[in-house]
Amino acid sequence: MKHAHSLIGSFSLTLISSSVRSQCFRVSVVSLLFFSYSSLASPDFTKLAPRTRDVLSRLVAFDTVSPPGNEIAAANWVRDELTKNGITAEVLSPDGKRGNVIARLKGDGSKRPVLLLAHLDVVGFTRAGWKSDPLSLVERDGFLFGRGVADDKGMAAFLFVAFVELARAKLPLTRDVILALTADEESGGDHGVQWLLKHHREKLDAEFALNEGGQVRLFGDKVQVGVQTGEKLYLDVDITARGKSGHSSVPSRQNAIHRLANAIAHLSDLEFPIRLNATTRGYFAQVAPLYDGDEREALLQVASNGKDAPRAAEKLAKRPYWNSLLRTTCIATVVKGGIRVNALPSEARANVNCRIAPDDDPAEIVAKLKAAANDPKLTWKHDLPARAPESPVDGAGYRAIVEAAQRTWPGSTTVAFMSTGGTDSRWLRAVGIPGYGVTPYPAARGVELHAHGHNERIPVRSLVDGPRFVYEFLISSAVKK
Ligand SMILES: [Zn+2]
């Protein structure tokens, strides 16, 4: 009854204010229905910010640098916090050290579950480059600093808070809501999502998933919500050249380092063809207005797919960022060879890191590398990645993101994009669970670049926007209307 009363109260209040502003009656009725519903249901995330900060601060303090990860302590802490809130949770571990924590709010089963996913491990750091302790959450100049705040403990904290609030609200759910905070994203996923999908598939099974990997950007005062619906596939290729060891004063022509250097020089000339998928074309069309002059013109031409598109794409590809969205790239990242300055090396090795466009076949990319290197005596090692289809932009998952974005940042635009980096969504997509990457806080361009570097940061207002966006996403996707 209380619900019904406040729904009516909120409805009429909104009706009055919206009639002043309304441009189109039908649109305003639809949006005020959403608005009334969410203002009825949504907790005040500004008031909850100290708790969100506390959860993030606890998570940052656990040393989960991966490898070795050791997420088990963090996972146990999350489980205990959920238990205190009356939610049953379990920790699943392949070896007692890597920790995955999973909890579920039951729905009426009329729809398949929604999965909220974040990883608890972080990349390593060198303290020298940091202005504060990377394992303590510190506020400075409007930002929160700490290893993992952007990738991905911030998201873990926001998912956690929204999940607990949804449980508290006791709203009727049409589908189960699964929270999974997992291990081992940064170094492969063998003990995290991949392991869970192999051994506990039913615990993650969902119609769609919300994960990291998107970008909510501020262009001036405009908020643009970038939703990651696909990603390039990740492939490391290990190339080994062998030669005769011995004294460098009596060299032979069979020198391992020269051989490897020759092969790498050939690879540096290799360029893969430009590939444009629907997501990238749509993305270019939507971001074009945010750029100026020639760049805007070229983006629009590529998006239109007309006769000038190939030339425009070539022009854009001169910039590394656009190039990485337009084609598969392979680049040498590690070279090792030789042990003494006066000894001939018996072996030299290189790692070539490839980021493969979803339309390209990884096996064909490796074949092209081999052909370009043109040395049959080289040894090649690699694990081909599974192909992962893009997540649809016309399903319930994407729709819920658009609605949540509108309620969290009114007037924002939402665009789908393919990311050049990899996330755990690739494992989900490979088994038929569409993953959507949203990093739910607006930040100026460039803030995300600190994610794996020194002084990783997120804006302080993320503590409000983050859990609010997740909550609105759940209202849209899982709460009975
Ligand atoms: Zn991450």
Describe this entry's structure for a reader.
The chain has 481 residues and is of the alpha/beta class. Among the domains are: 2-41; 49-212 and 439-478, Zn peptidases (Aminopeptidase, 3-Layer(aba) Sandwich); 273-324, no CATH class. It is built from 16 helices and 19 strands. The strands form 5 sheets. Strands 1-2-6-3-7-17 form a 6-stranded mixed beta sheet. A 4-stranded mixed beta sheet has the order 16-9-8-18. It has a 4-stranded antiparallel beta sheet with strand order 12-14-10-15. A hairpin with a 7-residue loop joins strand 1 (89-92) and strand 2 (100-105). Helix 3 (49-61) packs across helix 5. Mean pLDDT is 89; it is low at 1-40. Zinc ion (ZN) is lined by residues 119, 151-152, 185, 212. The site of zinc ion has 5 residues, from loops.
Amount of beta strand? 15-25%
- What sort of overall outline do the alpha carbons produce when their principal axes are compared? globular
* Superfamily (CATH H level) name of the domain at 49-212 and 439-478: Zn peptidases
Could you give the order of strands across the largest sheet? Answer: 1-2-6-3-7-17
How far from one another are the termini? Answer: 16 Å
Provide the structure class: alpha/beta
Look up the CATH topology of the domain at 49-212 and 439-478: Aminopeptidase
Report a brief summary of the structure.
The chain has helices at 2-21, 25-41, 49-61, 72-84, 153-169, 193-199, 201-204, 256-268, 278-287, 293-304, 309-316, 320-326, 362-373, 396-408, 425-430, 462-478, and strands at residues 89-92, 100-105, 114-119, 138-140, 143-145, 177-182, 208-211, 215-219, 222-231, 233-242, 246-247, 329-337, 343-344, 347-356, 379-382, 413-419, 435-437, 442-444, 457-459. It is α/β, with parallel strands linked by helices and 481 residues long.
